[in-house]
Amino acid sequence: MSGQFLTKSRHGSIYYFRRRVPQAAQSLIGKRVLVQSLGTSDRRMAVVRSRALATQTDSIFQRIAMAKKSNASDGLTTEFIMKVDLDVFGKPSSVYVDAQPEEQEAVNSAIRTVLEGAQERGTTSSTPSPQKSFSESVTTYYTKSSIRPQTKATYRSKINDAHEFFGDSKDVLTIDQANFVDYCDHVLATVTNVTTQGHYISTVATFLNWHRVRAANLLPLTTKTLMPKKDTPDSEERDAFTLEQLGFVFENAKKYKRSNPHKFWVSIAPAFLGCRIEELCQIHLQSDLVNDEEAGIWYLILNGRPDPDGVMRKSMKKVSSWRSVPIHTSLVRHGFIEVPCQ
């Protein structure tokens, strides 16, 4: 019965208990639906915990109905605490439910019944998974994950750092939260920039959790309390260029305008267009460089759509970064349109 109250998180990694509150009890409870994380990705353990919550909510709804019949619903309260201990193999070893005195035996009896069945089923399929080296796990991740080529390039240095830290003989599935905390301490000690520290931690966590969510009985690692805290806004992480410094940049670019025009425009264009070099370099000239003759302007289309041949070559950090960028008249006057169109 408790299985009907099970749902999974949006990423499919954690089970939740979800139960509709009877209409007669909604005014007292203040909710139409009760939702509680069961803290596990193992369906057998989720059923155990769901059974306890189902039994307890049955009792709560019944007591509310009885209280309303006798007009004694004011001030009705209930408390519920559940504790499940796991042994060294991750199997339930004991269960305790702090319920109302008259409910204690009924709740614990229900849990014991489900627990015994779960343990019996577990004995038939508890074969250990074969150990895999760290480098093998990296290859599998790059081959089978859906991350884009540009993202893989940015991930590579971070995952290589974790590879060096843990060693090639380390199976990624044996890296637990304590091991991951040690790695985060290593990052904080060896990487100076706060933003870069966060990139290392989140990238390695993504890599490890990609493997963990595909393995039975493994909860994802959390970065909630491990990400470094920034005490200054992004704008203060580095000083803006002074006019004198910008002058040096443009003077240096100026000498390349005829001999190596790409070196000239890669310095000049982003300053006038307000875009990143990476965004500019992935422009598809036949579809993303547009001339609006009626308005008399040229503009660039920046997005993450496939090129006309159907191949995905572009990548944007966020969907909100998709935009059309008008090309400054100064760039047009100095030949920015002519160079790619030649």
Structure description:
The chain is an alpha+beta fold. The chain has three domains: about 1-120, no CATH class; about 135-235; about 245-340, no CATH class. About 45% of the residues lie in helices and about 10% in strands. The protein is built from 13 helices and eight strands. The chain has helices at about 25-30, 45-70, 105-120, 135-145, 150-165, 175-190, 195-210, 245-255, 260-275, 275-280, 285-290, 330-335, 340; strands spanning about 5-10, 15-20, 35, 80-85, 90-100, 290, 295-300, 325. The strands form three sheets. The chain has a three-stranded antiparallel β-sheet with strand order 1-2-3, with helices on one face. The chain has a three-stranded antiparallel β-sheet with strand order 6-7-8. A two-stranded antiparallel sheet has the order 4-5.
Features:
single chain, 342 residues, three-stranded antiparallel sheet, alpha+beta
Helix content: 40-55%
Please compute the radius of gyration using only Cα atoms: 29 Å
In terms of structural class, how would the helical and strand content be classed? alpha+beta
How many separate domains? 3
Low-confidence stretches: 82-103, 118-128
Blueprint of the fold:
Elements lengths: L5 E3 L6 E6 L2 H7 L3 E5 L5 H27 L11 E6 L5 E7 L5 H19 L11 H11 L4 H18 L10 H14 L3 H19 L30 H12 L6 H13 L3 H5 L3 H4 E4 L4 E6 L20 E4 L2 H5 L4 H4 L1
Antiparallel strand pairs: 1-2, 2-3, 4-5, 6-7, 7-8
Helix pairs in contact: 2-3, 4-5, 5-7, 6-7, 8-9
